[in-house]
Design the sequence.
């Protein structure tokens, strides 16, 4: 009997875990050779708009339990949203009945955990900007590649990381995995977008630069198993095509030998003990009770400050979009580079002929969004600087967008914003990530945007962001 | 005539099954509705549902798929003008109910408390037995029935290469209570049998499909009954083996009785739903009292037919269903209404407020929609056509409500030449618009038939079971899109 559970819960974890255990126990009693149960609990909210008026407002609260049992290679499934014991029992019995009549399918069944081999793939996600002054091209990157040298596995797992539900890699049930080759594991950013400067109408050497913003590097483990002579893809249950020559047998590592491992933090406000709130991919968590903001740091949280820019009228009409204000500190390398640009060293600066001072602050989105909009928002906000005074009474905006881009990510966008704003190629900055990391102060601001049916609008800056673009950004 | 069931008895039974089991008392319902009736809320309701569904699919003699699910929950709705606040929870407990009420009422601004009427049990019809169809056959017998039809169908014709047969049943118990005092319950059984076959002859492969069902138990599917569906599926597939490409161009089209009524459902029925007309997006908006069809056409939506798939004792807002005349002798008489659209259009609900489940908001939907019989014998209709097409069965279709334009593909069709059915044709597509087609109906058969009980209607992502039907119809001029060249 092998059992596996997958839980995606926001709360009520204890009770649901018990229910899942009950299911697995009952399935075993009823003769199942393998069983899988999953439980879920969640809430959601949606709004429909017609003729610029809210027409339907929906709130939902879902719970559910699904069970799949195998009697040998026969499979049966059932689901229930009624979590009372009698309904759960009925579902398990029905799943067993369906399995009993089901067809024998040798490929059906959980591949035995001890037969599975998890193969590492490096995954890179992020926004890529390529400067070919005065143009800036941009794209969203999400690609993966085999992170070991053994060639008997596919070079990429395609769109799977984007389409399948991924769970944390916790190899504690004896599943075998391969360790990524160190040099591949430390994979580099991809090379530039075009690499050709021939289109530039300028006679001077082309000015090229790249920036990667909000990148996430991760390792995705894909399951395979051996059925001699083939390796079988355990998701599609199809053998993987192998090259003519026999590839070397991959070296197995039962114990993953990384210097990192997944750990969990209790998401309770260190100040007041309330549940911290955050959405998927948030990098800052907020406490709805004491309005404090927290950044995960090491084995705990670091408190960070934020400011909220006020707006006239009813605060509930506004949605707060988070922005990082990046201020180059005088005396720092960044300050100097921004002041001087990458052009030839300034002519002998006579008395009073000091290099210009850089912009006082850069404003960059603190959330992921399509690269084109990222650039536009950064450019317009930096031109306008802060729209209005900060709100007197601190406290979170009535509703706000999650912070999904950390300050370091936004810092790397600084040179692109400067490049987009400058008209003088000699003033283009040449910033390295190292120089940016220090000498640039980052502060978090919430800027009020008015809700309109299709867009969020900042009236002072006269800037609109499509709401669907914000939604789509979840996939970047 | 259907007997009116004592509302108290069915209510009491459903109450104990849904509310008592979850520990929800009357005062909790009042509290939840009270929380909803704030400010400018015109109407609010709670919809409780407990349902169980199963399906068994046999493919090539083996049970390939089976599913079983239990769903339960409550949908909470507050309506203010044209706005709807809606929340649902699939946990049937008091705190979840109150939380959902608070969320649904968020749509309206603060204000005075609205009023809740005292509950009046609504009398519904008794169109079907309040049974649970799932255990009306043992699992062994369900599988045996599918296996039997599989082998019998294969024995009918050696060209049958693939058989997929399925059995499905649902048992749904609902309870609605609304701020206008409506309180109603319904126990809804639903079963369905489907079979699809693939026949092969040389390098030709054709598919045939048949099925049936309604609001009763599995006992309806006797071995003879399911074999009859199997024969029909094989007949359709075999006919198409000899089919020639369909002609194209505008021509006289005769629609067969029964399932071809799906065209009426799509091209006319949806356009008569209250929401589209309130929003002014239907081809029929503002045309009540006007001639919209030839005087041979009378179209009704009847939710009160015993045991039919589309029938309901009460709709999902607690209003008893009725037989609504939509088009009478060519004159547009009415729309299909739910409570909200009826209120906004100054009329009353026609018992057509339906929803897929507690997790969906109700909207005007059809039940059993069909055209009444006319004076002509079907043979007489075919004989009247010199050159045309006879469409006997349809597959899928699409309709644009605003213009009434539709595209349908016929799965079984024949040429008509000199008043006689000719060769079967394949890939015939019917293109037209609802209002024009209705005006071109020149003969209506005396052979009204309803479909066998397989219809599912989708609208805004919600599926509900429906019935369709019509007698044989002659339409003078409908565009056929085919690959066999212009005629």
Sequence:
């Amino acid at each position: 009997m092998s059992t596996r559970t997958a839980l995606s819960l926001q709360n009520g974890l204890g009770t649901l875990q018990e229910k899942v255990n009950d299911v697995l126990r009952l399935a075993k009693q009823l003769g199942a050779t393998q069983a899988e149960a999953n439980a879920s609990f969640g809430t959601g909210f949606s709004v429909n708009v017609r003729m610029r008026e809210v027409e339907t407002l929906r709130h939902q609260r879902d719970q559910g339990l699904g069970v799949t049992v195998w009697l040998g290679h026969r499979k049966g499934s059932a689901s229930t949203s009624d979590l009372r014991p009698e309904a759960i029992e009925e579902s398990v019995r029905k799943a067993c009945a369906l399995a009993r009549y089901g067809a024998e399918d040798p490929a059906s069944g959980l591949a035995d955990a001890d037969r599975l081999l998890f193969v590492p793939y490096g995954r890179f996600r992020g926004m890529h900007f390529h400067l070919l002054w005065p143009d800036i091209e941009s794209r969203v990157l999400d690609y993966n590649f085999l992170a070991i040298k053994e060639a008997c596995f596919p070079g990429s797992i395609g769109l799977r990381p984007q389409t399948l539900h991924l769970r944390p890699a916790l190899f504690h049930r004896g599943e075998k995995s391969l360790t990524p080759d160190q040099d591949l594991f430390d994979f580099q950013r991809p090379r530039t977008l075009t690499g050709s400067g021939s289109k530039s109408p300028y006679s001077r050497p082309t000015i090229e630069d790249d920036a990667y913003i909000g990148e996430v590097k991760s390792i995705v483990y894909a399951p395979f198993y051996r059925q001699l002579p083939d390796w079988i893809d355990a998701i599609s249950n199809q053998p993987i095509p192998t090259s003519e020559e026999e590839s070397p047998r991959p070296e197995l590592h039962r114990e993953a030998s990384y210097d990192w491992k997944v750990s969990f933090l209790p998401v309770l406000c260190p100040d007041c003990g309330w549940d911290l709130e955050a959405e998927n991919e948030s990098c800052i968590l907020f406490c709805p009770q004491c309005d404090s903001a927290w950044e995960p740091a090491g084995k705990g949280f670091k408190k960070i400050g934020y400011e909220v820019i006020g707006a006239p009228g009813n605060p509930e009409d506004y949605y707060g979009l988070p922005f990082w204000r990046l201020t180059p500190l005088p005396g720092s390398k960044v300050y100097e580079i921004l002041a001087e640009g990458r052009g030839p060293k300034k002519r002998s600066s006579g008395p009073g002929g000091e290099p210009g001072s850089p912009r006082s602050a850069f404003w960059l989105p603190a959330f992921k969004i399509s690269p084109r909009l990222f650039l536009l928002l950064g450019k317009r906000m930096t031109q306008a600087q802060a729209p209005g005074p900060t709100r007197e009474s601190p406290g979170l905006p009535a509703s706000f967008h999650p912070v999904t881009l950390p300050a370091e990510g936004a810092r790397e966008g600084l040179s692109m914003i400067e490049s987009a704003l400058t008209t003088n190629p000699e003033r283009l900055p040449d910033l390295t990530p190292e120089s940016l990391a220090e000498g640039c102060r980052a502060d978090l601001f919430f800027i009020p945007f008015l809700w309109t049916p299709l867009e969020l609008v900042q009236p002072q800056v006269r800037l609109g962001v499509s709401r669907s673009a914000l939604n789509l950004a979840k996939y970047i | 005539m259907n007997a009116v069931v004592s509302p108290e008895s069915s209510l009491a039974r459903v109450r104990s099954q849904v509310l008592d089991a979850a520990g929800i008392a009357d005062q909790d319902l009042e509290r939840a509705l009270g929380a909803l009736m704030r400010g400018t809320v015109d109407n609010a309701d709670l919809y409780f549902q407990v349902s169980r569904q199963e399906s068994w699919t046999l493919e090539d003699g083996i049970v390939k798929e089976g599913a079983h699910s239990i769903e339960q929950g409550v949908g909470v709705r507050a309506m203010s003008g044209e706005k709807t606040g809606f929340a649902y929870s699939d946990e049937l407990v008091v705190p979840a109910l109150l939380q959902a009420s608070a969320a649904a009422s968020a749509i309206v601004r603060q204000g005075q408390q609205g009023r809740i009427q005292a509950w009046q049990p609504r009398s519904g019809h008794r169109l079907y037995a309040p049974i649970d169809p799932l255990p009306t056959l043992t699992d062994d017998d369900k599988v045996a029935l599918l296996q039997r039809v599989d082998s019998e169908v294969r024995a009918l014709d050696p060209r049958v290469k693939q058989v997929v047969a399925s059995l499905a049943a649902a048992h749904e118990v609902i309870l609605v209570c609304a701020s206008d005092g409506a309180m109603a319950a319904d126990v809804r059984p639903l079963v369905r049998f489907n079979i699809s076959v693939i026949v092969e002859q040389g390098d030709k492969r054709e598919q045939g499909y048949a099925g049936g069902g309604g609001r009763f138990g599995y006992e309806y599917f006797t071995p003879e009954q399911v074999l009859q569906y199997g024969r029909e599926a094989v007949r359709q597939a075999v006919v198409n083996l000899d089919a020639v490409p369909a002609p194209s161009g505008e021509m006289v089209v005769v629609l067969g009785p029964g399932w071809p009524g799906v065209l009426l459902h799509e091209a006319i029925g949806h356009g008569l739903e209250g929401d589209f007309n309130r929003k002014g997006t239907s081809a029929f908006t503002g045309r009540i009292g006007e001639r919209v069809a030839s005087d041979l056409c009378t179209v009704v939506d009847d939710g009160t037919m015993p045991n039919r798939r589309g029938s309901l004792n009460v709709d999902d807002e607690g209003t008893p269903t009725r037989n609504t005349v939509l088009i009478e002798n060519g004159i547009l008489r009415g729309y299909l209404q739910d409570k909200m659209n009826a209120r906004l259009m100054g009329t009353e609900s026609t018992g057509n407020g339906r929803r897929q489940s507690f997790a969906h908001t109700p909207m005007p939907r059809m039940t059993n929609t069909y055209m009444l019989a006319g004076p002509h014998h079907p043979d007489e209709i075919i004989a009247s056509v010199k050159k045309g097409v006879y469409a006997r069965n349809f597959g899928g279709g699409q309709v644009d409500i605003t213009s009434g334009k539709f595209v349908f593909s016929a799965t079984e069709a024949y040429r008509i030449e000199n008043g006689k059915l000719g060769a079967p044709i394949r890939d015939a597509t019917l293109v037209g618009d609802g209002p024009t087609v209705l005006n071109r109906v020149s003969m209506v058969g005396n052979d009204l038939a309803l479909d066998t009980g397989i219809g599912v209607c989708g609208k805004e992502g919600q599926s509900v079971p429906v019935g369709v039907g019509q007698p044989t119809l002659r339409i003078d001029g409908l565009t056929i899109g085919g690959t066999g060249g212009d005629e």
Summary: Confidence is low (pLDDT under 50) at residues 1-5 of chain B. The longest helix of chain B spans residues 223-241. The interface with chain A takes residues 21, 50, 54, 56, 62-64, 66-73, 82-92, 96, 99-100, 103-104, 106-107, 139, 143, 279, 359, 361 of chain B (CB under 8 Å).
